[in-house]
Design brief:
The structure is a homodimer of 218-residue chains. Chain A is an alpha/beta fold and 218 residues long. Chain A is built from nine helices and eleven strands. The first copy, chain A, has a single domain, classed as Rossmann fold. Helices cover 39% and strands 23% of the residues of chain A.
Amino acid sequence: MRISLLGGTGDIAEGLVLRWSQKGHEIFIGSRSQEKAEGIAAEYIEKLKELGIEPKIHGMANADAAKHSEVIIISIPPEYAASTIEGCADSITDQIVVTPVVSMKKEGKTFLYDPPSQGSSAEEIRQVLPETAKLVSAYHNLPAKELALIHEDMDYDVVICGDDEDSKEVVKNLTEEMKNLRVLDAGPLSVSPMIEAITPLIVSLNVRLKNHFSVKFV
Amino acid sequence: MRISLLGGTGDIAEGLVLRWSQKGHEIFIGSRSQEKAEGIAAEYIEKLKELGIEPKIHGMANADAAKHSEVIIISIPPEYAASTIEGCADSITDQIVVTPVVSMKKEGKTFLYDPPSQGSSAEEIRQVLPETAKLVSAYHNLPAKELALIHEDMDYDVVICGDDEDSKEVVKNLTEEMKNLRVLDAGPLSVSPMIEAITPLIVSLNVRLKNHFSVKFV
């Protein structure tokens, strides 16, 4: 598939780009500046070539990356996510948009869920998307470091939600191409606050217990 | 230890009573009426005797059960939890109080976290407890059915939080007497909304996927 990662640096972006490239998907790295996006794309291409993989990765401005892709991953900090999407307004029509965005605040060593006034980052993003776009909430709790180690299997669950069944099926299939992730569909987009809230809980546990937890439903 | 379960029927109460009785703890079942509490206590005693265990279980009114115990488990629906504690005001001084209370609402087949205005059920309960009581938030996501099968080990995580370190240590020890539960301390009581919110997510997953999930951090 043609997949864009808006703000395609850092955190889970690297692992998703590497693993989906390995599976033959075409990747569009978006950034605020085309130059920066091209630089990031070149880095990913070099990494993959070292692994013997000939990837299809392009760097371009966010709006162009969104326009070229069937699936758009919002890999952007919570405070910029909605405004970045608004800046891509002409490029997003009926694509699948995936939000792993979580808004949290820090109190001492503890991280707390701190959703926007809309109730969740997913709902905030939904309100700036055209109605024809299909929003799926996913990937909030993937451990970035392990995701980037593409020769290692991951034994984690990815809980997703969204109001469009077909787009959740696409996200499920793309996700389960990454061994051994399992997708659990928790229902409509209204579930997103409960999925998003797991992230600050895991971060708090990781800080306290010096671990790098992800979550599994057993 | 001397442990009371206020509203000691249903859900996780049975499993906790059976498993802690097996470990020799003395249990005080509380209910609104002493008669009902005595009836429930008699049922638990009979079950345990059939299993060859001679338990120390007493049934009495909620306030009396609280007064007799070192650890008080609030096994009460969210809408009655705070008022029940207020009704036990003279009986709760410096005990450890454990809240597994979660407030949720149903929309179609989906369960959503629906905390009280205080931000979490734990915070609502804290506000009606005397300052000398030590509140620990725990046991929100224990699968009741498996908990009641006392000869089966459970491979789950119990995430707890609270502002008093010593009382969390007591709850941790009591919990880990039940094989093979693992306690993860996520920090202060302010973390409770994120722990409570996992319950409606799990219930939603269970309804959709016809499963009986609990959670593990891996």
